[in-house]
């Protein structure tokens, strides 16, 4: 708050009839400005620490590795998850049988148990292959990545769905008639 001192200069006059001009003090109190400065500094420090982005760590393979140098997955340690529409998940263990006898359906509530059971069976050899189709949502994809993190699955891959698998997903969802 700014103050002005309007008091006289002590009441002394220099001669008869001479009016002395009043000396004004222009003292400005900067205490509120300092308080405001500290409040702004505090606000920006807290908001920058809160707004730090959190991201999930992904172990990505090296792009320069030749295909013949890549590791092959054991059938006993492979679990393939197919994401469909309406929060449906389809899965099979190992390789897809020609008659689709090992093709099973699940949902997001039950898939955790499937992953945990497969993880116990496969020990350290578990590899989960995630294959979203065109009808699956981004939310479902993020949810299945969260399941990988929750179940501490260290090796998983996101791969394009094959036409045969996509056909089985659509048949199970009741969209496409089975091919003869």
How would you sum up this structure, described in words?
There is one protein chain. Helix 3 (138-150) links the parallel strand 4 and strand 5 (156-158). By secondary structure, this protein is an alpha/beta fold. It has helices spanning 31-50, 111-122, 138-150, 163-173; strands at 78-83, 88-93, 104-107, 127-132, 156-158. 31% of the residues lie in helices and 14% in strands.
How do the helices and strands line up, and which of them pair or pack?
Blueprint: H1 31-50, E1 78-83, E2 88-93, E3 104-107, H2 111-122, E4 127-132, H3 138-150, E5 156-158, H4 163-173
Parallel strand pairs: 1-4, 4-5
Antiparallel strand pairs: 1-2, 2-3
Q: Approximately what portion of the residues adopt beta-strand conformation? A: 5-15%
Tell me the number of helical segments per DSSP (H or I, 4 or more residues long). Answer: 4
Low-confidence stretches: none
Derived structural class: alpha/beta
* Strand/helix succession: HEEEHEHEH
Roughly how much helix do the residues carry, as a percent range?
Answer: 25-40%
| Termini Cα gap | 88 Å
Quaternary: single chain
Secondary structure: number of strands = 5
Shape, principal axes of CA atoms: rod-shaped
- Major sheet: order of its strands? 3-2-1-4-5
Our Rg estimate from Cα atoms comes to 36 Å
Summarize the main sheet.
Answer: 5 strands, mixed
Q: Mean pLDDT, nearest integer?
A: 78
């Amino acid at each position: 708050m700014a103050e002005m001192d309007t008091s006289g200069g002590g009441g002394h006059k220099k001669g008869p009839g001479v009016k002395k001009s009043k000396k004004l003090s222009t003292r400005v109190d900067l205490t509120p400005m300092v308080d405001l400065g500290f409040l702004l500094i505090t606000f920006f420090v807290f908001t920058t620490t809160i707004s730090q982005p959190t991201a999930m760590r992904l172990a990505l393979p090296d792009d320069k590795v030749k295909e013949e140098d890549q590791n092959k997955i054991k059938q006993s340690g492979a679990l393939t998850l197919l994401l469909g529409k309406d929060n449906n998940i389809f899965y099979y263990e190992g390789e897809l049988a020609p008659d689709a006898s090992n093709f099973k359906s699940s949902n997001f509530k039950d898939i955790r148990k499937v992953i945990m059971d497969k993880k116990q069976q496969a020990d350290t050899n578990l590899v989960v292959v995630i294959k979203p189709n065109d009808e699956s949502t981004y939310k479902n994809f993020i949810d299945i990545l969260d399941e990988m993190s929750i179940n501490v699955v260290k090796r998983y891959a996101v791969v394009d769905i094959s036409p045969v698998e996509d056909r089985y997903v659509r048949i199970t969802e009741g969209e496409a008639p089975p091919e003869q």
